[in-house]
Each structure stands twice: as structure tokens, then as C-alpha cells.
Amino acid sequence: MRIVGILLVLAGWLIPVVGIAITQSRAARFVLVLLGIAVTLFGIVGVLNKAHLKNAIWKV
């Protein structure tokens, strides 16, 4: 799960970076940036946080 979370965070970062090369439209870039933020937050809060809480030190 940690690998999936890290890959989602990297994908969320790559979406706006690739969007710069794909389009020159500000609206399209803005949409890609929002999509990248959403994917990154899902990777951090949704996947990485759950993986961390599954193996948390206080649950031992």
C-alpha cells in the first residue's frame, strides 16, 4: 500500500507538469492542476495515512 500511495503522490505531481507541455490554455492547465492536487491528496490522506495507521506504533 505504501508503494501505491507514493506512486499516486508522484502521479499527482506529474499531472500538472505534463499539462504544461500539453496545452497553453490557462483553463486547461488550471483543471490539470486541480486534478493533480486531488490525486496527490488522495494518495497522502487516503492511501498513505491508512497504511501508516495499519502499522502504527501505538497499536503494537
Give the end-to-end Cα distance, rounded to a whole number of Å.
19 Å
Order of helices and strands: HH
Q: What general outline do the C-alpha atoms trace?
A: elongated
Structural class: mainly alpha
Strand content of the residues, in percent? under 5%
**Level of helix content?**
over 70%
Treating each run of at least 4 consecutive H or I residues as one helix, how many helices? 2
Query: Taking Cα atoms only, what radius of gyration do you get, to the nearest Å?
Result: 15 Å
Mean pLDDT: 93
- Major sheet summary line: none
Got a strand count? 0
Task: Name the poorly predicted regions.
Answer: none
Structural commentary:
With 60 residues, this protein is mainly alpha-helical. The protein has a domain at 1-35. The protein has helices spanning 2-22, 26-54.
Looking at this protein, list some descriptive labels:
83% helix; mainly alpha; single chain; 60 residues; 2 helices
Secondary structure blueprint with pairings:
Layout: H1 2-22, H2 26-54
Helix pairs in contact: 1-2
